[in-house]
From TrEMBL:
Protein's name in the database: Phospholipid/glycerol acyltransferase domain-containing protein
GO biological process, one term: phosphatidic acid biosynthetic process
InterPro entries cross-referenced by the UniProt entry: Plipid/glycerol_acylTrfase
Lineage per the UniProt record: Bacteria, Bacillati, Actinomycetota, Actinomycetes, Mycobacteriales
Molecular function terms, GO-annotated: 1-acylglycerol-3-phosphate O-acyltransferase activity
UniProt source species: Nocardia jinanensis
Top-level taxon: Bacteria
Regions crossing the membrane: none
Keywords assigned by UniProt, alphabetized: Acyltransferase, Transferase
Domain Phospholipid/glycerol acyltransferase span(s) in chain numbering: 63-199
Length: 253
């Protein structure tokens, strides 16, 4: 199927395409390895987290990976951390939610597609009413991908944190709805919180440069395999759990 243009008016075709889209795993592995060498993140784990993640991947449990959002460069440092962590075996089988504007340029879109991107039409960009139907479809597609055995990485704050990089900002219920819909399809994803820190910042509103995001600190929390049943409860768990992971990342920076 030929990739459709990523436009809100074309969202049905867009999500039908990403329902079936498969990454080139060899290309993805090569790209993630390159980013691992370029950004050199440091990766830490809460007690027991490394072993638990390894076992979940070995048992082919889909992972719902929540990461705090600090910069437009986060997808690249996250990819680098995946290469240097227990997530390496699921590179090429992990989808990443990314804002729709990243799919506008052909060259960048090829890169985002290769890295597992699924476009998101955000209410802050298009208006909440305008994106409602597309958002529902996006969550359905994410749930289907998880039920098929893929994993999914999400920045659940929805936008970059320019307030306090050491505090997780508000988490919407989208991640809860995705987990809830996945469970309705008969699959039970495990929540893995991954805290990210680029170190203390004099002004959080000023985005870090490519040099400043090198050697970032990532910290994995212990996975949750028994999630609440309601989307709002899942979202509350994500925020609390992600804060613990972020605390670990900040402490280890």
């Amino acid at each position: 199927m030929r990739p459709p243009e990523v436009l809100l008016d074309n969202s049905d075709d867009v999500y039908e395409f990403y329902r079936e889209h498969r990454q080139n795993r060899l290309q993805a592995m090569g790209a993630y390895a390159l980013l691992g060498r370029r950004y050199r993140p440091r990766v830490g784990y809460a007690a027991g987290a490394r072993e638990a993640i390894h076992e979940l991947i070995r048992s082919r449990t889909p992972l719902l990976i929540a990461v705090n959002h600090l910069s437009q460069l986060d997808p690249y440092t996250l990819a680098a951390a995946a290469w240097r962590s227990e997530l390496r075996p699921i590179i090429g089988r992990t989808r990443v939610l990314a804002k729709d504007e990243l799919f506008e340029q052909i060259k960048l879109r090829r890169r985002i597609d290769m890295m597992g991107g699924i476009p998101v039409f955000r209410g802050s960009d298009h208006g909440l009413r305008a994106v409602n139907a597309a958002g529902q479809r996006m969550m359905d597609i994410c749930a289907e991908r998880l039920a098929f055995g893929d994993s999914l990485a999400i920045f659940p704050e929805g936008t970059c944190n320019d307030v306090d990089p050491a505090q997780v900002q508000a988490v919407g219920t989208g991640i809860g709805h995705i987990a809830f819909r996945t469970a309705k399809l008969g699959a039970r994803p495990a929540l893995v919180s991954l805290g990210l820190s680029y170190g203390p910042r004099a002004d959080p509103a000023v985005a870090p440069t490519k040099e400043e995001v090198k050697s970032a600190s990532f910290h994995f929390g212990v996975p949750h395999t028994d999630l609440p049943t309601r989307p709002a409860e899942i979202a509350r768990l994500v925020r609390a759990d992600l804060q613990q992971a972020l605390d670990g990342a900040v402490a280890a920076y």
